[in-house]
Amino acid sequence: MTVKRCGNVIEVRYMRSTPCAVIEKVNADLYVDKRTGEVKEFCHSANRADSKASVAQSLRKLRDLINANLTAPETALWVTLTYKENMRDERRVYEDFRRFWQRFRYYLKKHEYRPAEYITAAEPQGRGAWHLHCLFLFPEKAPYIPNADMARILGHGFTKTKGLQGIDNPGL
What we know:
- By secondary structure, the chain is of the alpha+beta class.
- It has three helices and nine strands.
- A hairpin with a 2-residue loop joins strand 1 and strand 2.
- The chain is flat, with a radius of gyration of 21 Å.
């Protein structure tokens, strides 16, 4: 049984017993249906976005992660990082975020703000270009950081910075 609390909503998930696995993986491409003995092929997706169940599970885990770590919305900043160019290189997106994070930590220290932690999710736009959604968590009230400063720290495009005051379920 799992119990999650999100604001005034309590979600309880209960499973009577652990289900028995009905398939057994043979290799990366084949599996056996134990009920019938049939050997079948896995349906491979080009990417995770093709699997609605996988995306739904990822979003559920992300909501849980946010709601478990963000207890006071005034201590958080929600920032979207977008490229000027049509960025399709996933590895470069992660490397650019790593460098952004280093510069952002320096910015916080230079302005005598407390260090932050982050939760981030990369998302492709409809045209295939990647952008990042970042939740910065501070140990106290989040500082005001002008959007122009955030864009300068990013150095690759546009940013949108918002506070979460007044939001009762930030995971949504």
